[in-house]
Every structure is written in C-alpha cells, then in structure tokens.
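TICKET: design request
STATUS: open
ATTACHED STRUCTURE:
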C-alpha cells in the first residue's frame, strides 16, 4: 500500500479586500487518492472567511497514485478552485498494467465540479491512449455505470488495449444517490 505522506508547499494571500488567493504544490512519492479526498473534502455550507471569495491554483504530483485497487505512475494535475467551482484543467498519468504488465496505457483527463447550485454539476472528460480496457473500467468503479448490463458485458470481454475519448456529465445533490 501507499505510504500516504504528502508534502504541501505554497502560500495564501489575504491582502486583497475582496478575495483570498493561493498557489499550492502538493507532492507525494506514493498516495491513495481516496484518503486524500476524504481528508480535504470540502464542506459546501461553510461561508468564506469575511465574505471574501477564494481563488487557489494547485499543482498535484505523485510518483505512484492508488485508486480503488488501480495504480497510476507519474501522475500530474493542475487544479483551480474559485469559490465553489473546482476545475482539474489537466490530469496526466500512466496506468499500471494488469497482471504485472509494465503499463496499462496513458490517461489524460479534465474534471469540473460546480458546487454553486443545490445539485452539484460534474463534468468528466477522459482520453486514454493504449490503455488496457480493464484499467479503464476499474477507474469507474465508483460511478454506478458498472452495474448496468452493457458495462458488465464489457468487463467480461477481452477487449485488449484501446484509444478512447469518454465524456460523462451528471448532477447530484450532496448525500443523494445517483439515479441511473
């Protein structure tokens, strides 16, 4: 398992009367994504300090990234947070292959989470090159798509490697279940 230690460097600037800005770099040799997400989960009901908006740019780097049983190496992402909108402008990584294969392909993605409305809006775009189909399917274990008959059918087939562009948009109120 991952050592789950991260190094955080950067600064916040409180000198602006109407906003708080920041530039942060988060690095890790090896980390489990869900532990980090759970630790920094944003609480949408908390007001911003002194009514000021929050604008933060982040760079995220990990040598090995663990995600629900999958492993990615050489992971890099750029993120901007402006009030209740979080944009992963660029996510790049190499997926570790199935059964000890050297690599499961290259993955690039963007993701936007808009928490400014009661039903949060999610927009995920993924592009993979020479990715093992199983590595890609494993990424979506958290989304209810795998429970659908077509996803189950794909998981049972030996698809091999693929180049694919995927886009998924959904809305969901915090604490509610997705209705598919």
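STATUS: resolved
RESOLUTION: sequence designed for all positions
ATTACHED SEQUENCE:
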């Amino acid at each position: 398992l991952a050592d789950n230690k991260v190094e955080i460097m950067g600064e916040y600037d409180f000198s602006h009367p109407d906003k708080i800005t920041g530039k942060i770099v988060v690095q890790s040799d090896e980390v489990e994504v869900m532990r980090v997400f759970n630790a920094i989960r944003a609480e949408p009901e908390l007001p911003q300090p002194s009514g000021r908006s929050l604008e933060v740019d982040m760079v995220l780097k990990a040598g090995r990234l663990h995600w629900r049983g999958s492993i990615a190496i050489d992971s890099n992402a750029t993120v901007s947070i402006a009030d209740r909108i979080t944009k992963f402008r660029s996510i790049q990584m190499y997926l570790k292959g199935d059964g000890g294969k050297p690599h499961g392909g290259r993955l690039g993605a963007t993701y936007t989470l808009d928490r400014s409305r009661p039903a949060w809006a999610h927009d995920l775009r993924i592009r993979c090159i020479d990715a093992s189909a199983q590595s890609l399917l494993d990424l979506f274990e958290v989304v209810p798509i795998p429970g659908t008959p077509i996803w189950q059918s794909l998981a049972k087939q030996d698809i091999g490697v693929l180049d694919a562009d995927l886009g998924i948009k959904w809305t969901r109120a915090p604490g509610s279940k997705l209705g598919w």
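CLOSING REMARK: The beta strands are 7-13, 19-32, 53-67, 70-82, 85-95, 105-114, 120-132, 161-172. Residues 42-47, 142-147 have pLDDT under 50 and may be disordered.
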